[in-house]
User: Fold this.
Amino acid sequence: MTSLLILNGPNLNLLGTRQPEIYGHVTLADIEELCAAKARDLNLGIAFAQSNSEGTLIDHIHAARGVHDGLILNAGAYTHSSIALMDAVSSTELPTIELHLSNIHAREAFRHVSYIARVAVGQICGFGAAGYPMAIEALANHLEHRP
Ligand code: DQA
Assistant:
């Protein structure tokens, strides 16, 4: 069975109360439920994790090698700063979708830079929590059709 790791970075544990005008009222637990439902529909395995620490996120990515077939990564603010996370993704060669709840391109200029985008198959942003099931579908489709 195809298996995906859905990994969430710093401050995403606070979803629901964190800047709801930007991120909405949905909690990370709600998002995990959405992902589980989508995975059931598509007959996929998923693992869901969150960390506020860059090193722990990197450890999760390393541990995914040989266990999961693809990665959905909302790296939070590390998206815009972490060469180490970018290197972790390229080192494991896991097909990766970069995900954001908000449209990072419509926000402050520093959010327009993404180190993850350089090593990702593609990016989904701006659709709030609905982006997660979209990313699962997109990644499953990519894995199914890659040469
Ligand atoms: C975010 C966008 C980032 O710029 C921000 O630092 C976050 C959340 C998003 O999901 O919209 O923490 O990744």
The mean pLDDT is 97. The longest strand covers residues 3-8.
